[in-house]
Design a protein that fits this description.
This protein is of the alpha+beta class and about 160 residues long. It has one domain. Helix content is about 35%, strand content about 35%. It contains 4 helices and 7 strands. Strands 3, 4, 5, 6 and 7 form a 5-stranded antiparallel β-sheet that branches. A two-stranded parallel sheet has the order 1-2.
Amino acid sequence: MKTIVSVIAGFMISVMYCSAQSGNQLNGLLATSIEKHIRSKEQLVKEGALVRDYLDKVVFLNDNFPGDFPFSKIAEEYSVAFFDDVKYGKSELRSGINVFRLLPVVLIDNTLSITIADGRLSKKRSSVTISSSGGTTYVYGYSCDTKRWELLETK
């Protein structure tokens, strides 16, 4: 019985090791999508469609992010962080702050969709309100030939 369990465990480990994609590609796709989203907002600021201080603090809600997600690459250019209510005063939270929110990532066949929603967060007493005002979906397709995810479209 121990031999059978050992053989099955060894087989499962070798299959997982041999067929897994290299590195954590999801973190890379998330970072790329976030960069594209911030750059699109930056363009809207330049065009005057958004107020100039819109990107002074780029704040993301922690929802739907992998536990090991690094903002380090993006943080080199922008002041990007996860939301932490301790960093804001009561009056600032009462009037509301701009936030971005990662919606659940959707994988269908070889297509991965990452949606980043724009929103506003306000807090009055213990009541937190999050309103969304749109967002962008980045659709990636996996190519077996190149063994890479490629951006197919932006909605």
